[in-house]
Amino acid sequence: MKVLHYTSNSTIFFPCTDKVENCMMQADSQKGVFAFYRYVCSQLDEVNPMVVHIYGSWDWRLCVIAYAANRHNKVVVYSPMRGLTSSNIEWNPFKRRFWKFMLCQFGALRYADVIVMQDNYEAGIFHATGLDKGHVEILPAPESEEDEVQKEFMYSLYNKTVDTHYMRFITPQEKQFVTSMVQFAMLGVDNQIVMPNIQDISFRRVAFYVHDEDVSDIVKQGAEKAQISISEWTEVTDDMRYPKKYKQFGGFPDKSPFAMIKAASKIGLKNLTLRHWTELYHLFRYEDYDEDKVVQELAKHKLKKTAKKIQNQLTELFFLKPGYKIL
Which residues contact residue 304 at a Cβ distance below 8 angstroms, ignoring those fewer than 6 apart? Predict the structure, then answer.
């Protein structure tokens, strides 16, 4: 994991763990906003970090870096370094610091995925501002001069934040691997299934993806049929990620044809998980039902277009043959 650091003040001390690849981004005070933005984008493209960690307060560059990192789908960690305590915030609109806060600090806070406070006092002051919309963490006090406690804390924070936003980093090859394993489980060995290349696949990201798609058991079954050994498989738990809205999973509660198609329309085809698609495929391919009655119900509730889209998607995912389509 690469972490790109930026500090607005060279005298600021921050714990830098050796368990990640650390890179520093230099500031050029002579550059304007747009020139500095282009510079940040070039650094993000060159270094290609997963995490961008910015330190400091009251610097317009922090907002620019956070915005650029967000546009590049990078995780943003922000450490105000005690810059948001009451002595540094002046809410009088006639004072310069108020406008400086609104223009600089709000931008950095808005795009930060995680905000790291130095102590409970700073966190309390920040909470009083009402701007703590993201995840706030408090840096633990060091137990030694080497600050090993803080370094371990930062390493865990980086991992937890990246795991929470794993969809920013998941590759098409990793998604294809999951789809192929589901196909192997549903269809068995078939010439139409693309055999994935697992050399450049992060099984940690795959584990989170199949957990959210609710197909962990199906993927493991498909891997066994494809004779692919999945090493370092991660069992996903809630404490591994920050609270976040994930896809609804658990399959369809009612397995009747009309109820499943109606539920799929209500959820939205783009929001269906792979678990939903496997149950729809099993319905069309293996279940015995009155097709004429289902077609009449779909026409009555104006769901024929939805059913057609579902069948087209099943044809793409699981090669559903025309003989098993109701439309």
Answer: 295, 298, 327
Angle between helix axes 203-212 and 172-187 (nearest 10 degrees) is 60
Whole-structure pTM value: 0.85
DSSP string covering 135-147, please? EEEEPPPPSSTT-
By residue count, the chain amounts to 327
Closest CA to 4 of 27, 24, 31: 24
Confidence class of residue 165 from pLDDT cuts 50, 70 and 90? Answer: very high
Chain position carrying tokens 């620019």:
64
Report which secondary-structure segment, H or E, holds 295: helix 291-300
Contact assessment for residue 54 and residue 65, using Cβ atoms and an 8 Å cutoff: yes
Eight-state DSSP code of residue 77: E
* CB-facing half-sphere around the CA of 36: CA atoms within 13 A: 19
The SS3 assignment for 170 reads coil
Strand order in the sheet with 75-79: 21-24, 2-7, 51-55, 75-79, 114-117, 135-138
Beta-bridged to residue 23, according to DSSP, are 4
Q: What is the DSSP string of 246-262?
A: ----S--S--SHHHHHH
Using only C-alpha atoms, what is the Rg of the chain? 25
